[in-house]
Specification:
4-stranded antiparallel beta sheet, 12 helices, alpha+beta
């Protein structure tokens, strides 16, 4: 086979993969744009809620004006940075605002009447929900999935196209060096997952320890919940979909989404919940349907199939419940004080229409007993067992595959990227020898 024919074949392969990577980059661009658009909407909603929160707090927190002022100053800085599209300033202002809100909610613990105020409770819940949604969108969702797919996949061929375009020794050396670096990263990531899955013993749910665990069981919907895929309309545990439109013989991104609902896994000894946010989800259930100019691609996990999960196991509530007697005691006393008629009927021993210091001490004693009893009942209840994204960057994997198939999957990909890395090193050395 002549050198010219080999070059033509290489060119054809690079062009095909170059078109593929270009389409993936277009999809990534649209997904990133969608994520930042959603963040902007959430920032506006939070911007509107903060003055209401501060006004509500002012009625009770007369001695915390500095805390309230810091929140409003940070709010103004966020609004200014958002309007000027100053991303570094926005990040700095966001940090200041989150710190201010954290201090405000911490200080509010010392004001029982404020904590029991319905408006404050609603605003605190609303703003905390917006904060969590903003944090999820900063680096999460489907556009993170697309970025990883490009970085670990055909993106290396896009780099080789750059080397072919430059048509120089230096250009080829740079291209092979970049391919080697990205392949090393991908090899290390897949090898880490392979070793983690292969070396971590499978735990029974009933006796699973707290911390990093691996479990295998049947997927189940928690009682009283039902998740339906918006594409197929079928019940499922988890879904991700993408809709594309064919324009000028090219598929362009239209819409995508991923579910965040928790689902159950039961291995026969017990059941726990899985929070899929942040997980690498590997599923064999992929459906592609085309209707007119629209192409819909859907990935799902369904109830009843084998589900493998490795992540951080925690128990919420029950014996591990985080309880504060002082806070709960203050809240209970504030509740009693709000209903003066019942308070007098229960603790006004001399029936003079007032609660004396001695009678109030008796009320505090009774409240302390009630709080102790409630805490004991809480700790005696079964907690909620949950697997979630681990800290410190440890792999969080959810898959509808058996352990052997999963280890084979990661082992093959690690060998593939290792071969690609060695090929890049050989290419770098060959380019160095070319005069």
């Amino acid at each position: 086979m002549s050198g010219g024919l080999v070059l033509l074949i290489l060119l054809a392969i690079l062009i095909v993969f170059g078109v593929f990577i270009f389409n993936q980059l277009v999809t990534l661009k649209h997904n990133v744009g969608k994520a930042w658009s959603n963040i902007d909407v959430l920032l506006k909603q939070r911007h509107d809620e903060l003055p209401k929160l501060v006004e509500t707090c002012k009625q009770y927190m007369q001695f915390e004006q500095e805390t309230l002022e810091k929140v409003m100053q940070a709010r103004s800085q966020v609004a200014s940075a958002r309007e000027s599209h100053n991303i570094p300033a926005l990040g700095q202002a966001e940090g200041a605002l989150r710190l201010g809100l954290g201090n405000l909610f911490a200080v509010a613990e010392a004001y029982p009447e404020l904590k029991t105020n319905e408006t404050f409770q609603h605003l605190q819940s609303r703003i905390s929900g917006l904060e969590n949604a903003i944090a999820d969108l900063h680096w999460g969702g489907d556009w993170r999935h697309d970025f990883t797919r490009i970085a670990l996949g055909g993106g290396n061929l896009f780099i080789l196209l750059l080397g072919l375009k430059l048509q120089s020794q230096t250009g080829w050396q740079i291209s092979f060096a970049l391919v080697g670096l990205t392949s090393f990263w991908a090899w290390h990531a897949n090898l880490k997952r392979y070793r983690t899955v292969a070396d971590t013993p499978t735990s029974r749910i009933a006796s699973a320890p707290q911390g990093y665990v691996e479990v295998v069981g049947r997927g189940q919907q928690p009682p009283g919940t039902s998740l339906v895929s918006p594409i197929s309309g079928l019940p499922c545990l988890w879904y991700r979909y993408q809709i594309e439109e064919k324009i000028d013989n090219r598929w362009e991104y239209v819409q995508s989404d991923v579910s965040h609902d928790t689902f159950g896994v039961n291995d026969g000894t017990g059941q726990l919940l899985v929070d899929p946010d942040g997980a690498q989800i590997i599923t064999s259930r992929k459906q592609v349907s085309t209707l007119g100019n629209l192409r819909k691609t859907e990935w799902t996990l369904i109830e009843g199939e084998t589900i493998y999960v490795i992540g951080e196991h925690v128990t919420l509530g029950g014996a591990n419940a985080v309880l504060s007697k002082s806070a709960d005691l203050s809240a209970l006393l504030a509740e009693w004080k709000a209903d003066k008629t019942r308070l007098l009927a229960r603790f006004d021993a001399n029936r003079d229409g007032e609660i004396s210091l001695e009678e109030w001490e008796h009320a505090r004693y009774e409240a302390s007993i009630e709080v102790d009893r409630a805490h004991l009942e809480t700790r005696l209840k079964d907690g909620i067992h949950l697997i979630r994204q681990p800290r410190h960057g440890r792999p969080f994997i959810v898959a509808n595959r058996k352990i052997d198939a999963l280890t084979r999957h990661f082992r093959l990909w690690s060998w593939f990227h290792l071969a690609l890395m060695l090929g890049a090193l050989l290419g770098f050395g060959f380019a160095q020898r070319i005069a």
